[in-house]
Amino acid sequence: MNIIPDKVKKFTDIYSDYYPAVYNAIYAKIRNKDLSGDLAQEVFTRFYEKMDEVENPRKWLMGTLRYVLLEHYKKNSVVKIDIDEIFYDANIQYVNGFRDTRIILQEALEASENYKDDRDRIIYELIAIKNYTHEEVARLMGLTKRQIGYRYKTIVDRIVDYLKNKGVKNLEELL
Amino acid sequence: MKTEEILKTVIDKYKLDDPVPFEARMAMEKSRKENLVRILKKEAGGIIFISLVVSFFLWIKKFGISVSIAKSAVAVTAALIIGAGVITAAGVYTAGKIADYISDNNQKTEHIQNLKKDSGGSINPEVQAVQEIISYSVAVAPVEMDDVPDKLLSEYRNQMIHELQERKGVKAAVNSYGLDNYHTSDKTLQVSIIKLDEKSKASGAESVYRISAKIISTADSRVLMYSSVTADGESTIPDSIKKLAEKISAKL
Questions:
Q1: Is the ipTM of this complex over 0.90?
Q2: Which residue of A7, A40, A156 is in closest CB contact with B31?
Q3: What confidence tens digit (pLDDT) does each residue in B162-173 have?
Q4: Is residue B112 in a domain?
């Protein structure tokens, strides 16, 4: 007996993993808890409708997130909105060596070879970028705290190796 | 310093971090469940069922156990079936118990009514409320008399009960067969009728009878009261029982 359709099974797995990332990305822009929930729902509702055509859920969700945010700004602002202004490149405001190092670091943090799978990337983002505790991430991902600790350490080791290949022999040099 | 901590410090220094406040994290967890229910309710059946499934699916994750939504649905369905089974069994069991209780009470009521009918008394509505404990002044034991049919003895006893109840109320006396958990008495009235043969033999007249009564404590078998009257013939025994009842009722 198939109580839950296959589409729902697949959607729920993706939703469960990516919802924190989508919500946090929206919250980072609008700083409103309730509205972030509403817009995140809109993103996932669209994803559910298009899911069969989507090859890379992460890319699709982040792309749709930008459009949903743009629609929100357009609807609620009299000033003309440029989506690139909303998702501007933060590196522009920094200068010289600081900016270069920041770009290298950012590349290291985004490089797909540093993550075994998308769940690794989510774990890393939540802990290193969004300041979630290991316990909180374990709760969200359905893993034990120990598993999260192990996976996070493995990711960090990969990033450090990546930076070594880029000429950063010792992380302390960047401090 | 551990490598993880150094990398975190580097990320902070180069302003690559974007911390999420605690309240926002809590709001995210709350909206995650609500939004999933809203999206799935159209596809996956009833809102209550999908709410339960999603709640279970997200709740079990908190313990580090990752199960699919399908397994969550199976678990919730099984729990619902078991729950329904337990409730049904409890309902059937309770209904059975209530039926037994009612049946038991009906039997007791019928038994008491039969005894009342036997003793010639009216059916008191209070008797039907078997839950109420009624304490009687005396329980009247079967009348003792030689060489007379049981039916006559039963009539004498019923007369005694009736006389006592007329004088002292319905709780003055009860047939000793009618005693149970709800109808009690701590005293027993024993009535005996003896034919005094000497007088009848001498004069050839109708036999004289002595009707004696004694009230005995059921707790220690002590005789609490004794009284007797005489009857000049068998036909006057009912009148003598009436006189004896007067004497006894004065001391109840």
A1: no
A2: A40
A3: 999 988 888 899
A4: no
